[in-house]
Specification:
Homeodomain-like_sf; two-stranded antiparallel ribbon; mainly alpha; Tetracycline Repressor, domain 2
């Protein structure tokens, strides 16, 4: 671990306590600015190369403001992943309410509409490059440090369970279903997207965020296999 790792970020950490506690509006704004700054700093420099000072400077705060919200860079990293998960789930629920009920016409599925549903499970394409880099950094950190790996795996399990349930509810409302069990479908879709996102960054290492969005051709083909009518 780095010398700035102040405390364990496992079960019962302040990541979980902060999410459960009622934050004052001012403190919530401070926390969000730190998270926004960390997203950019970590993506550019990696968690090992980025310092708490760099995050604070980018956010316009002191180290005191940082430590009043997070105990370490690692904890901040996990909070970023948690925030992204919550944003994805909120977007998923929102788009499900906007879809037209005639998504199934003559027994045929409108797969473009299904891809629209799935697109919100991943980060905005405008952030595709930065998020792919962040994701890679987080996975490496989780593999190297059990104190990060445990809560990371717990977050992943929660994300995939909640995303799967949300998508299945939307599909059921539209008269659709997965052709395989929910968890297998979600694992396949997210794994294919994440692999494609990494490849896009490797192929275009200097591209702007919007130009680094992954190719969705394989994902589209997978949707065709995994989604069908409920009849």
């Amino acid at each position: 671990m780095t010398s700035e790792h102040a405390t364990d970020v496992g079960s019962g950490s302040s990541v979980e306590r902060e999410l459960a506690a009622a934050l004052t509006p001012r403190r919530e704004r401070t926390r969000e600015r730190l998270l926004d700054a960390a997203f950019t700093v970590f993506a550019h420099h990696g968690i090992r190369g980025a310092s708490i000072e760099a995050v604070c400077e980018a956010a316009g705060f002191t180290r005191g403001a940082f430590y009043s919200n997070f105990s370490s860079k690692e904890e901040l990293f996990l909070a970023l992943a948690e925030r992204a998960m919550r944003q994805q789930l909120a977007s998923l629920e929102s788009i499900g309410k906007e879809l037209e009920p005639d998504i199934v016409r003559g027994g045929c599925v409108d797969h473009d509409a299904i891809r629209t549903i799935l697109s919100v499970v991943v980060t905005d394409p405008g952030d595709a490059r930065q998020w792919a880099l962040m994701r890679a950094e987080l996975e490496l950190l989780a593999m190297r440090d059990p104190a990060v790996g445990r809560p990371f795996l717990a977050q992943e399990e929660m994300l995939r369970t909640e995303v799967g349930a949300a998508i299945e509810r939307i599909l059921a409302d539209l008269g659709l279903r997965f052709t395989v069990d929910q968890r297998t479908a979600v694992d396949l879709l997210l794994s294919v997207y994440e692999s494609s996102a990494r490849s896009a960054v490797v192929a275009n290492p200097t591209a702007e965020d919007g130009d680094a969005a992954p190719d969705t051709a394989v994902l589209s083909g997978l949707v065709n296999l995994l989604v069908t009518t409920a009849d």
